[in-house]
């Protein structure tokens, strides 16, 4: 009797959350998968099943290729900048934990991660601005010609990478700090007795022991890199002022196909590509972790 | 003689250590200031005249500050309306996420039925799917409900948070012993009473961290508000600002003023809630 009552309570209590979850998560995810196999332009009533037709078309779509390439470059660019910088910064902050300024360092480096994307991107829009921006003025002191940072195809991708790294860094540092705090102190003391210098114990102790954290932060950074949208939207307007056109990214291309070209099924297939990328990255993370656990 | 030498080397070692400490401090301080510099300039640019925007080196404190930019932004755009929309959306989303996460997290932690395991597996599996993947079908759901361009549409995308459910579940497992709940049951307490009077108070810390996380998540949301709010009055501040800058002329002074109006309160809020926030974000790294 009592057992039955408890079961009933558990089911009734979880039901609302489960219903919401099914309604705003599971259903739309399933719908994305289903739509990707259908041809649907918003206006027509019927959505014919076309199998992998959308994906076949994606293979030859130049705009999609451009978006995929840009997004990949941005994601890996941010990764390459963020991970080593974050690790070194976290090591230094951890080393100075007892100093009164460590709270300030942490806050200052973390702040760009929490401020809203768009206002922060505005700050960088000014920095990179070809005419008004301090970056060109600064480079001018060394005799470097002013560059059109936000309009040149290569430089604008670099600008987006810089902005994204500036924002991603704080999160990575924070997670690394948690990692550093969990490392056994005794090991470092032993290394010190054996005559290891600070940089040596960083290289031979910290880096190998923080590998699971590095793996985790890398995957998070890559996944959020593949979802980049706001940064490119604000920073990279093209010459006509159309936002985000200069650096075409996956999410932008997807939204354009859906809401400008009214090709929802096609956009859904792009979303599925994004999902596959994220799944592969996550699987790589788990398999590397498991490998480590076994050895 | 020998003791003399050892103090000598001890002194040298201490001196070296101090030198290392100071140089690390210098590096960290420089880096921290560099990270803050774009935000500092953003605020100060808001107060500058167009002439001063061009100055090199850029001034941190404007020579002759003006509030023209702020006045222009506030009269030309419904900026306050956008801020209000954002606050309303963020607060409602926070409440929804706290409610759903605390109940579901508690049930999934303390009740052991096979059906609950399946539910938990589903929550975990969908946690890694980025919002961008399923936002287009979700848009059509909002459309068929007829709630586009309203707070409800914004809220639809931010009612639940997989990570929140997970976080609360972990917290319940670690901080609430089964014996405590059993004792209450033996004393005749009802399940609802137990949840509200025993479980929730013990979760205060975790709920605080999750709440701050949820608030900032909604406050900084971009892609979803961008597609469901197409009416100028319905924009959130992020969307409003982003579309404001796409006009024909990009006036960086006004943009900076508008951005500063948004940044200053959110940075203040962050500094006040720093501890909660850091705790919440740090716990995202402890998934394993």
Automatic annotation (TrEMBL), chain A:
The answer to whether UniProt assigns keyword Membrane to this entry is yes
Location in the cell: Cell membrane
* Ranges annotated as spanning the membrane: 7-27, 73-95, 107-127, 155-178, 264-289
Question: What GO biological process term is on the record, naming one?
Answer: transmembrane transport
Q: What is the topology of this protein in the membrane according to its UniProt annotation?
A: Multi-pass membrane protein
Q: Which residue ranges does the record assign to the ABC transmembrane type-1 domain? A: 68-285
The family database entries (PROSITE patterns) matched by this protein are listed as:
ABC_TM1 (PS50928)
Q: Which UniProt keywords apply?
A: Cell membrane, Membrane, Sugar transport, Transmembrane, Transmembrane helix, Transport
Please tell me where this protein is predominantly located: membrane
Give Gene Ontology CC terms.
plasma membrane
Source organism, top-level taxon: Bacteria
Q: Which family does it belong to?
A: Belongs to the binding-protein-dependent transport system permease family.
Q: In its UniProt entry, what is this protein called?
A: Multiple sugar transport system permease protein
Q: Which organism is it from?
A: Devosia limi DSM 17137
Which lineage?
Bacteria, Pseudomonadati, Pseudomonadota, Alphaproteobacteria, Hyphomicrobiales
Automatic annotation (TrEMBL), chain B:
Gene Ontology terms, cellular component aspect?
plasma membrane
Q: Which InterPro entries match?
A: MetI-like, MetI-like_sf
Indicate the quaternary assembly. Answer: The complex is composed of two ATP-binding proteins (UgpC), two transmembrane proteins (UgpA and UgpE) and a solute-binding protein (UgpB).
Q: What is this protein called?
A: sn-glycerol-3-phosphate transport system permease protein UgpE
This chain's function reads:
Part of the ABC transporter complex UgpBAEC involved in sn-glycerol-3-phosphate (G3P) import. Probably responsible for the translocation of the substrate across the membrane.
Biological process terms in GO annotation:
transmembrane transport
Where is the ABC transmembrane type-1 domain positioned along the sequence?
A: 83-273
Family assignment from sequence similarity: Belongs to the binding-protein-dependent transport system permease family.
Q: Where are the transmembrane segments?
A: 87-109, 116-140, 146-168, 194-216, 255-273
Which Gene3D superfamilies does UniProt cross-reference here?
MetI-like
Task: Give a yes or no for keyword Membrane in this entry.
Answer: yes
Pfam families with a match to the protein in the record = BPD_transp_1
Query: What CDD domains does the annotation carry?
Result: TM_PBP2
* UniProt keyword annotation of Cell membrane present: yes
> Where does it live in the cell?
Cell inner membrane; Cell membrane
State the UniProt keywords alphabetically.
Answer: Cell inner membrane, Cell membrane, Membrane, Sugar transport, Transmembrane, Transmembrane helix, Transport
Report membrane topology. Multi-pass membrane protein
């Amino acid at each position: 009797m009592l057992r039955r009552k408890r079961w009933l309570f558990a089911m009734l209590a979880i039901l609302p959350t489960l219903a919401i979850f099914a309604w705003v998560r599971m259903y739309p995810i399933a719908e994305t998968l289903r739509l990707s196999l259908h041809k649907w332009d918003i206006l027509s009533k019927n959505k014919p099943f076309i199998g992998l037709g959308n994906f076949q078309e994606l293979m030859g779509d130049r705009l999609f290729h451009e978006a995929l390439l840009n997004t990949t470059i941005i994601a890996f660019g941010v990764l390459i900048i963020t991970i080593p910088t974050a690790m070194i910064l976290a090591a230094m902050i951890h080393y100075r934990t007892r100093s009164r300024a460590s709270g300030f360092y942490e806050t200052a480096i973390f702040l760009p991660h929490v401020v809203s994307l768009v206002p922060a991107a505005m700050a960088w829009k000014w920095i990179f601005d070809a005419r008004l921006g301090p970056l060109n003025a600064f480079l001018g002191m060394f005799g470097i010609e002013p560059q059109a940072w936000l309009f040149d195809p290569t430089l604008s991708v670099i600008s987006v990478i810089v902005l994204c790294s500036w924002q991603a860094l704080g999160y990575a540092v924070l997670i690394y700090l948690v990692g550093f705090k969990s490392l056994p102190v005794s090991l470092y003391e032993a290394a010190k007795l054996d005559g290891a210098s600070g940089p040596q114990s960083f290289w031979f102790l910290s880096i190998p022991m923080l590998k699971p954290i590095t793996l985790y932060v890398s995957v998070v950074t890559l996944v959020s890199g593949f979802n980049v949208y706001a940064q490119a939207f604000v920073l990279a307007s093209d010459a006509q002022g159309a936002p985000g056109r200069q650096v075409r990214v996956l999410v932008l291309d997807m939204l354009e196909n859906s809401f400008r070209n009214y090709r929802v099924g096609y956009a859904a297939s792009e979303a599925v590509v994004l999902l596959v990328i994220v799944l592969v990255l996550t699987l790589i993370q788990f398999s590397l972790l498991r490998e480590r656990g076994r050895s | 003689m020998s003791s003399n030498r050892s103090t000598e080397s001890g002194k040298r070692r201490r001196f070296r250590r101090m030198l290392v400490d100071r140089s690390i401090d210098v590096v960290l301080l420089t880096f921290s200031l560099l990270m803050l510099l774009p935000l500092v300039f953003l605020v100060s640019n808001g107060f500058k005249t167009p002439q001063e925007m061009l100055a090199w080196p850029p001034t941190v404190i404007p020579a002759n500050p003006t509030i023209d930019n702020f006045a222009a932004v506030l009269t030309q755009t419904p900026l306050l309306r956008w801020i209000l929309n954002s606050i309303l959306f963020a607060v409602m989303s926070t409440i929804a996420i706290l409610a759903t996460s605390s109940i579901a997290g508690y049930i999934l932690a303390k009740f052991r039925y096979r059906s609950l395991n399946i539910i938990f597996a589903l929550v975990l599996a969908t946690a890694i799917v980025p919002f961008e993947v399923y936002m287009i079908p979700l848009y059509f759901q909002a459309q068929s409900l007829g709630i586009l361009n309203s707070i409800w549409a914004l809220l639809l995308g931010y009612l639940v948070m997989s990570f929140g459910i997970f976080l609360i579940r972990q917290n319940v497992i670690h901080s609430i012993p089964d014996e405590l709940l059993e004792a209450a049951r033996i004393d005749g307490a009802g399940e609802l009473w137990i949840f509200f009077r025993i479980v929730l108070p013990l979760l205060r810390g975790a709920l605080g961290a999750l709440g701050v996380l949820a608030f900032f998540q909604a406050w900084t949301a971009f892609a979803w508000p961008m597609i469901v709010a197409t009416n100028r009055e319905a924009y959130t501040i992020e969307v409003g600002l982003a579309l404001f800058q796409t006009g024909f002329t990009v006036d960086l002074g006004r943009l900076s003023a508008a951005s500063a109006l948004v940044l200053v309160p959110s940075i203040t809020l962050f500094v006040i809630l720093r501890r909660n926030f850091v705790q919440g974000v740090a716990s995202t790294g402890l998934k394993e």
